[in-house]
Amino acid sequence: MKRIAVLTSGGDAPGMNACIRAIVLTAHRNQIEVIGFRHGYNGLLKREYQPLHPGDVVNIIQRGGTILRSARCPEFVEPEAAERAAQNLNSMHIDALLVIGGNGSFMGAEHLSQYWQGQIITLPGTIDNDINGTDGTIGYYTAIDTALEAIDKVRDTADAFERIFLIEVMGRHAGFIGLSAAIGSGAEQVLLPELIDPEKGVDLEQIKRHVKITRQKRGMCSYIIVITENLYPGGATALAQKLTTDMDVECRPVILGHIQRGGSPVSMDRLLATKLGAYAVEAARDGKSLIMIGEKNYKVVEVPLPDTRATKKPLDPYLVEIQQDFFDLVKHPT
Ligand code: F6P
């Protein structure tokens, strides 16, 4: 093992830099050279890369984003693209490729493995936490905190005006950020893809009923609904408009958007990224391939790459139960 390459791909996530740092420092200790492809798989196709030495990763552990830049690369699904990537990797004498990213990036890694004989190891880097085989993904913990900070601020003004707010969080088609942000902020309701029948969509009657009962019990009060993106046509803005019209009570939308992807990584993300990055290099050194390095119950685990996408990762059922139970005004009427 002489030379490895790393790239960051798909939606960037706080902690990706910490992971790159751990990879570079661990490789250096093992006398392995590291190069970083820039702009995700695009850099692999265009041979856009930079050598990475320990000096290049000083003071990046606390920085959001990724020093290697990121991108989505739709053309990477084509066989010609994977063949070109394989040729580039071979001509550059790369022994192992480390991919930090989410589901789409993992799909790219599996696709590449059909054309390239080198070792491929992936690391879960996405705020969505929608990857099987790991309790958390790099960036998820920071995204929750960012959402919470924003929701706490909205709560202050919501309280002052006794208003209803609908807060849209990211997650693509997974409710991990939504559930954690709702529980952490004490939101009155949460709308998550996992809890909504896709045929029926968002249950407007249930929302209205809950707002009404809450206000009957508590009097006029603020009311916060957290909703995952892509759940309602037109998003939180359209849903807030609909609720405003239907209930004859003002409902304001707040879309948190990309602020959830930025910022300095929280401790959990820095530690996770460091642990997984260091382990990935050791796994590469030991000849492993086609695995994701994840964490289960605070222990680093190796997960066969296809298993990471085989089934939809479930939400923690106990957390779901707690959220629903706290706001079940029929069971707990006062
Ligand atoms: O996968 C991370 C994520 O932030 C999702 O939560 C979101 O749906 C998507 O990326 C947004 O991607 P883009 O920045 O390309 O619009």
Summed up:
The protein is α/β, with parallel strands linked by helices.
What order do the helices and strands come in, and which of them pair?
Elements: E1 3-8, H1 16-29, E2 33-37, H2 41-46, E3 49-51, H3 79-91, E4 96-101, H4 103-113, E5 119-124, H5 140-161, E6 164-169, H6 176-185, E7 189-191, H7 204-218, E8 223-228, H8 235-247, E9 251-255, H9 267-285, E10 291-296, E11 299-304, H10 307-310, H11 317-326
Parallel strand pairs: 1-2, 1-4, 4-5, 5-10, 6-8, 6-9, 7-8
Antiparallel strand pairs: 2-3, 10-11
Helix pairs in contact: 1-9, 3-4, 5-6, 6-11
Question: What features would you describe in this structure?
Answer:
41% of the residues lie in helices and 17% in strands. It is built from eleven helices and eleven strands. It has 334 residues and is α/β, with parallel strands linked by helices. It is elongated and about 70 Å long. Strand 1, helix 1 and strand 2 form a beta-alpha-beta unit. The termini are far apart. The strands form two sheets. It has a seven-stranded mixed sheet with strand order 3-2-1-4-5-10-11, sandwiched between helices. The protein has a four-stranded parallel sheet with strand order 7-8-6-9, sandwiched between helices. Bound molecules: 6-O-phosphono-beta-D-fructofuranose. 6-O-phosphono-beta-D-fructofuranose binds next to loops.
